[in-house]
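Chapter review: from sequence to fold.
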Amino acid sequence: MKILLVSDIHANLDALTAVLDETLQSVDGLVCLGDITGYGPDDEACVQRLRDISLDLEESLVLAGNHDAALGGGLALTWFNTEAQESIKRSASLLSMESMEWLSSLLPQGYAEFGAERVYAVHGSPIEPLTGYILDKASANLSFSRMEASGFHRCFFGHTHECALWKPGATTGAIAGYPDIGKSFVADSYLFNPGSVGWPRYIMRPEYGADGIGQDSLWPAWYALWETDTGKIQVCTARYDPSSMLARLADRDKR
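The token string follows.
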């Protein structure tokens, strides 16, 4: 089976559409690692699209991110900075009751089980599934310790908006500039983040600038493809024109 891995869409429908246009006809399942909502202008459309796809595909796992959980009262607004608090309040005003109920049903952790493959999945980290960050060797090694104690060896995570691969010993991660677009890996034990669909963040990648946005007019939407038969994971980006999304965002912020 081929599974689409996405995270941190953050209400950017144009980015999500770019990813789905590249992948939807060739994948058998979906793993979404949370934060469908927030920041962007398209909360309702993104929630409905993810919900419909998760029902249509043969297999799917959709997790709640911290922004999603806050909408249903699962995380206090005081946890967030002022900008994020305002974003969550706007999301709440734009979402239908149906979408709010669906988001409230999501959990921040679970298992991606496809055939014989079983991978732990969280929005944040194995230590704090909803709000934890895996950003450096220390946090990666703490996560591996928790994983070992719990009897699992592979974990998908999101939340940082950075594509990252950590292996035991935590010698590789986003700060090291790996994995690169188009590269793939197979490993028995790892922590893997497919990066952000809607708002990627890259500090050490000069070709994407300080905020993960390219030097040309097209923006990258990060995702990954997981082949469960071989265990191979490939890092990918879909490129899209952000002008329409940015116009909607500016229009929304004027209201």
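Two observations follow directly from the output. The chain has one domain: 2-254. The CA atoms of residues 48 and 99 lie 7 Å apart.
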